[in-house]
Write a structure and sequence with these properties.
Layout: E1 2-8, E2 15-22, E3 25-33, E4 40-47, E5 52-59, H1 66-80, E6 83-91, H2 97-125
């Protein structure tokens, strides 16, 4: 099993991602803030005819990580043309709107970096 990682942000706003390659498919986990956890999981399934992905999501009760996990799964499945499972758990107690925005931006950057790292690893294998 191969793993690949990426990160974005600093301090309590850092978001870290790790991917485990499963043949052509990928499992990705993102955590961050002051209380990493599992808040939501999404599976993106690439559809070659549409050149896009269909996503299904499960969210833990009272958590709000589903938008990020769904975005990450769709982005990864489409960019990598595979099935992508994305788990997200990012939390800061009593976060205000600005802090949530920073965390969301860092998630997007981390996700993009992780996808690029996966693409590089795949091209190195060829």
């Amino acid at each position: 099993m191969e793993s690949i990682s990426a990160a974005a942000g600093e301090g309590k706003y850092v978001v870290k991602g790790i991917a485990v390659l499963c043949g052509q498919d990928v499992n990705m986990a993102f955590t961050g803030g002051t209380l990493p956890h599992t808040g939501a999981v999404s599976m993106g399934i690439y559809e070659p005819v549409r050149r896009s992905a269909t996503v299904s999501t499960i969210t833990a009760f009272t958590h709000r990580d589903d938008r990020l996990s769904a975005t990450g799964a769709k982005k990864a499945a489409t960019a990598l043309e595979c099935t992508a499972v994305v788990t997200v758990g990012i939390h800061i107690d009593d976060a205000d709107v600005r802090e949530l925005s920073i965390l969301c931006d860092n998630f997007e950057q981390c996700c993009d970096r992780l996808i690029e790292n996966i693409k590089e690893r795949r091209s190195d294998r060829r």
